[in-house]
Prior knowledge:
- By secondary structure, the chain is α+β, with helices and mostly antiparallel strands.
- It has four helices and seven strands, in the order βββααββααββ.
- The protein folds into two domains: 14-96, Phosphorylase Kinase, domain 1 (2-Layer Sandwich); 103-181, Transferase(Phosphotransferase) domain 1 (Transferase(Phosphotransferase), domain 1, Orthogonal Bundle).
- The strands form two sheets. Strands 1-2-3-5-4 form a five-stranded antiparallel beta sheet.
- The radius of gyration is 17 Å and the shape is globular.
Amino acid sequence: MTKNILAPSNKISKNDFNFVKVVGRGSFGKVYLVKKKDKPDMPLALKVLNKDVVSKRNLMIKTQAERDILEKINSPFIVKLHYAFQTDAKLYFVMDFLNGGELFFHLRKSRKFSERRSCFYAAQLVEAIRILHMNGVIYRDLKPENVLLDNNGNLKITDFGLSKQGVETDKDGAKTFSFCGTPEYLAPEII
């Protein structure tokens, strides 16, 4: 039996959205560009996860954590969760649609950023991490693929599946002992 991990919302469903196109695919589902029928001028991203896949891979807790974090945090540098709902077979997260692409794409295209541009992005990332830490969240998958840009060139962190909640980061010696992240981005001394 699949456990319901999302609390019921105000009866919102996929029928409240017009699906424009698929903008991303992952091993757990798809991300669509959608427009809410009563707000057609506001593009949104709809992340659809298959419950069977999430359950089989034992990712219910991580999926619930991602939802909780996105619901709790309000920052201009962290993707915003607008709605979360579910059906018997799928989980739905409706978030900001960021049409500027991944930071990874821009870095690969430019090969390197100017010092000014690097400082601009670094300041926004530091502020995003500061807000997360103030809320007891450790973000553990920071990489250019998880940083998206909006149409003004400002960045937002996304993908909180590996994040850890309830960590008091202001205390000396606060640690977490799990090993996670993307191998390509591990520090050489860890490898």
